Each structure stands twice: as C-alpha cells, then as structure tokens.
Amino acid sequence: MLIFAFLLGVLLTWLVMSGLMAQGLALLVRVIWPSSTVERELSVDKWLLNIPVQPASSWRLLGYWQDTFLYRQACSQMAGLLADRACLSSQDKVLDVGFTSHDQLLVWLDYYQVSHLTAIATDEHLMAKAATHCGHFNTLKLVRGGEKGLTEQASDSCDKLLALDCVYRFKSRPEFFAQARRVLKPGGTLALTDMVLARAFQDRCEQRLLSRLGRITGISVEGMSIKESYERLLGQYQFEQVDIMDITDDVLSGFCFWFGQHQQSLSSFTRSKIWIRLRLQVWFIRWMLHRKQLRYLMITAR
User: Fold this and answer.
1) Residues 191-202: pLDDT tens digits?
2) CA-CA distance, 300 to 302, in Å (whole number)?
3) Between vectors from CA 194 to CA 189 and to CA 199, what angle results, nearest 5°?
4) Across the beta sheet with 184-197, what order do the strands follow?
5) Whole-structure pTM value
C-alpha cells in the first residue's frame, strides 16, 4: 500500500509539473460544456486574442514575432512577409484562400493595392465582417466556400494565390495544390504558410497518439507533410522554383510565449472556461516543439 501511495504521488506530481493535469481538466470542461458551434468558438478565440487592442482588430493568426511583443503587429508582419515573398504588386489579380480576418484583406487591398482580390472563406460571420469593413473596395469579391471554393474559380484566373496560416486546417493538401495549379496563370505564384512534421512518425503508436491529441486540440497532424518532402509534394503538381523558409522560432515559439503572458494578464476578468480551446492548442504546439517534431514554414512556388 505504501509503495502504491508513493507511485501515485509521483504520478500526480509529474502530471501537475508537466501541465498534463491542467490540460486534462481543461479538456474535461470542454467536453462537459462544449461551445454550440465551431464558428462561435472561433469568434471567442478571435476576441480573446485581440483584446484589449484599440481600435478593435480581428486578427486570428499565429503571427510573426520578430522584434515585436504586440499581437496586432505580429499578425501584420506575418501578412506583410508573405506578400513580400510573393512579390505582391498593384498589377496582380490575387486569390486569398481561407482568410481568417478582414484585417488581412485590408493589407492586400490598402497597403499593396492589388488590382483585384477574390477572397474565400467558410465563416458566414467573417464574410459579413469583411463586407462591412472592406466592401468599399470595388476590386474585392467575396466567395463563401473555404478551400472548396477553389473548384468554382476559373482556370488561369489569378496571378498570385495566397493561403496565410490556414493550410494546416485544410482537409486535403493534394486537392488544394491541384486546384491552386489550375487557377494560377502560367508563371503565377503560390504563397502560403504551413505547419509540417520535422520527422516521420516513429511507429503506429506515436501516430495514433499525436493524431488523437491533434484532433482534440484543433491542430490535426493527419495529412501533415514532412518538412523534407514538401518540395517534392509541390513538384507533383508542376510547381517549380520552390522556396521554403523555416520561421518556426519567430512564429510558433513567439506565439506561445506571448500567449502565456497575454492569458495571464486577462485571467482576472475572464472566465477560464473560454480559454480552453486556445490553451489546448498552445499546449499541443509547445509539446510538439519540445519533442522537436513540429516546424512552421513559409513557402513560395511558381
């Protein structure tokens, strides 16, 4: 009995120190009191990430945390970096697939002044917000449908296709790349960011564990590419001149560090329940980084 009590104490101490106890309780609360819809969860996440920013913004990116500690600036820097890597110009017809904020559309329309922008998303509330804040641009066309909306776009219809911090949420990368190749004009540019695995799974047990944890936390590792095979994957869909930049430290590590401070600063006047989804995602990212199994890439291809 003494040995059992000792082992139980060691186990509980490890669970508390590792953070698994807190995350397990958070998961239990989420199962017992789930949000009514995914869209509602995402809206809450967006509000939590952006408060107490004034004037209000609606970014929902991981951000690029080089030389900044402000969420709004980190998101703007991430959008700007992708645009610069894609060589965005005022002559471009742009297709933005899976946009998560009207603020990101304003970067393409207002700062880079693209000649035409087609923006695709699934969230009805997000589409309404985009129409309200960006509707005065007659060069903007909003399309509902997420990555599936690509199938409705004409072939050879855009110069640049952007997918900012959203590809790892798509159901099928191969289908996305095939459609991207179809809608891009000859010589057009695909520019995206994506989470990838740093190495292959060691065995099926590891694959099952990470897949289940990923589904619970909202970051699915099923279908994630291996970093070293990404260029080959794009090559299968006739993409060339593939340029891959690893920005893991400035994105994943930076976001996790900022989030810990941000959540703590707001904990006194927000309920812990509403942080569950974001806390689980951050915990999973940290855990994968600790295992040296997750990377974040910015990729351009033509």
Assistant:
1) 999 999 999 888
2) 7
3) 125
4) 140-144, 116-121, 93-97, 158-163, 184-197, 294-301, 243-246
5) 0.86
